[in-house]
Specification:
- Among the domains are: about 90-240, Rossmann fold (3-Layer(aba) Sandwich); about 330-385, Helicase, Ruva Protein, domain 3; about 395-490, Arc Repressor Mutant, subunit A, CATH 1.10.10.350.
- The strands form 5 sheets. A 3-stranded antiparallel β-sheet has the order 3-4-7. Strands 1-2 form a two-stranded parallel ribbon. Strands 5-6 form a two-stranded antiparallel sheet.
- It is mainly alpha-helical.
- The protein has helices spanning about 20-35, 55-65, 90-100, 110-125, 140-150, 195-205, 220-230, 260-265, 270-280, 295-300, 315-330, 330-345, 355-365, 375-380, 405-420, 425-440, 445-455, 465-470, 475-490; strands at about 5-10, 40, 105-110, 155, 165-170, 175-180, 185-190, 210-215, 240, 245, 310-315.
- The chain is elongated.
- It has 19 helices and 11 strands.
- It starts with 5 loop residues before the first strand and ends with a helix.
- The structure holds glutamic acid.
- Glutamic acid binds near residues 11, 44, 200, 214 and 218.
């Protein structure tokens, strides 16, 4: 096929994009960019009852966050618009009329009640569910009569009763469906809205979509689409159904496996470039081993030939590892800018705003190697911004120093020594505190652990002397004072 590459991401605004939806968007975007084609965003909003408030915004924000820019679509328009299906209803209606006129579709007047009892009967008899085709051969007069009775029909497609529908899927090869297993599905509902199947093929045709890249779950809809293309005399696009995404237990990825909402990952401090890299490897690979790939590497190398058939496992640990790698690779200034919103969110209101970029810059080298998300960055460094860290006094009597008097003496001696320090940097602090631990007869691990709690309020923190150096002498002394008070009042 030599048609120019035009692909689309066609979400329905029925929920917030999750990892699976966005993987589809990403693969379409990569395919378009690799082939110098066009990436279209089309909003499939014809199912009014399932519309979710805020979903469209979330689709747009998700694409923007990942940098998946579209060439045609909502907000920017394009030569094939409108790009909201709800604004194209006339086109679908007239297509349905054409299909009826050509003998490929028919009016169905069956009431929901009748369809319901038919389904129950089928279930009872253990027959496959499906419309029993009662209206398939109604005569003109019957149709007029029923219409005159005020019944608004739906329009159904006439599936050929015999034969097979075959199409070639780029990923799965030849796929064959027996027509006898297909239902006379609805094209146009009684409210005049098209179903997904009708609107989807009409738009893919009119928007000159060359390749349909979509999730595996749509594979079973494809024979209907192929038959519709044939009935309309349209050339069908090429299909590529992307492998299903599985959780670590190999069942379909769902909320059970933890969060799957894309924007939730942003909130948790994942970088968009790590997310793009990770999502690209959900079903595609460059080779057996390459993990870290820039956006450019992905665009340069993406091909449908290397999309797998088998399910892709969503491994959160891998994403988190990858995110840590991306965080370490960020320039200092960039990391500072990206950490700020997370610090803003984590720090209590009494911390003065705007936060000091200078201070954050000093923190970066202390935490960069230790954090895997921006949220961890904020969680690990919040005490730098607080006057005195909050912690429970009992922490001061940790595993090493169990005795109140010993702890008090140790903190007081540290306080005294620090007060005298002329130069306050990591080397001088180490030069003071190491020998001091020997003098007072407390193991360095225990002594430093105690001081760590006193100045940071936590048991795990960045390296002690560097941390203290960044905090500054005054603040360290205040923290030690506060620890002394806590110990004195401890019963
Ligand atoms: N509107 C469908 C969805 O929400 C589009 C499926 C397709 O790409 O054909 O996923």
């Amino acid at each position: 096929m030599n048609k120019p590459v035009r692909v689309r991401y066609a979400p329905s605004p029925t929920g917030f994009p999750h990892v699976g939806n966005i993987r589809t968007a990403l693969f379409n975007w990569l395919f378009a960019r690799h082939n110098n084609g066009k990436f279209i965003l089309r909003i499939e909003d014809t199912d009014v009852s399932r519309k979710v408030e805020g979903a469209l915004d979330s689709i747009l924000t998700s694409l923007k966050w990942l940098g998946l820019d579209f060439d045609e679509g909502p907000g920017i328009g394009g030569p094939y618009g409108p790009y909201f299906q709800s604004q194209r209803l006339d086109i679908y209606r007239s297509t349905a009329e054409k299909l009826i006129a050509g003998g490929y579709a028919y009016y169905c007047f069956c009431s929901p009640e009748r369809l319901d009892s038919m389904r129950q009967e089928q279930a009872k008899l253990k027959q496959p569910p499906g419309y029993d085709r009662r209206c398939r051969n109604l005569g003109k007069e019957e149709i007029s009569k029923l219409k005159a009775e005020g019944i608004t029909p739906v329009v159904r497609f006439k599936i050929p009763l015999e034969g097979q529908t075959v199409f070639n899927d780029i990923i799965r090869g030849d796929v064959v469906f027996e027509n006898s297993t297909q239902d006379d599905f609805v094209l146009l509902k009684s409210d005049g809205f098209p179903t997904y199947h009708l609107a989807n093929i009409v738009d893919d045709h009119l928007m000159e979509v060359s390749h349909v890249l979509r999730a595996d779950e749509w594979l079973s809809s494809t024979p209907r689409h192929v038959l519709l293309y044939q009935a309309m005399g349209y050339e069908a696009p090429l299909f590529a159904h992307l492998p299903i995404i599985l959780g670590p237990d190999r069942s379909k990825l769902s909320k059970r496996h933890g969060t799957t909402s894309l924007m939730e990952f942003k909130k948790q401090g994942y970088l968009s470039e790590a997310m793009v890299n990770f999502l690209a490897l959900l079903g595609w690979s460059l080779d057996e081993k390459t993990e870290i790939m820039s956006r450019k590497d992905l665009v340069d190398n993406f091909s449908l030939e290397r999309v797998g058939k088998t399910g892709a496992i969503f491994n959160l640990e891998k994403l988190t590892w990858m995110n840590g790698t991306y965080i370490r690779a960020l320039r200092e200034n960039e990391l500072v800018s990206r950490a700020i919103p997370f610090l803003e969110e984590t720090l209590p209101a009494e911390v003065k705003r705007p936060l000091s970029r200078e201070l954050i810059k000093l923190i970066v080298p202390l935490v960069r190697e230790r954090v895997r998300t921006l949220k961890e960055f904020a969680d690990m460094s919040d005490f730098f911004f607080m006057e005195i860290p909050e912690y429970s006094t009992s922490l001061l009597l940790g595993k090493g120093i169990k005795n109140k008097e010993t702890a008090l003496m140790a903190v007081q001696r540290a306080h005294g020594g620090i007060e005298q320090l002329a130069k306050f940097d990591a080397t001088s602090l180490e030069g003071l505190l190491r020998p001091l631990s020997e003098q007072i007869g407390i193991k360095t691990g225990d002594f430093f652990g105690l001081l760590r709690i006193a100045v940071t309020g936590r048991m795990v923190a960045p390296p002690l002397f560097q941390t203290m150096a960044v905090m500054g002498k005054d603040k360290c002394l205040k923290c030690l004072d506060s620890a002394i008070k806590k110990l004195i009042t401890l019963k």
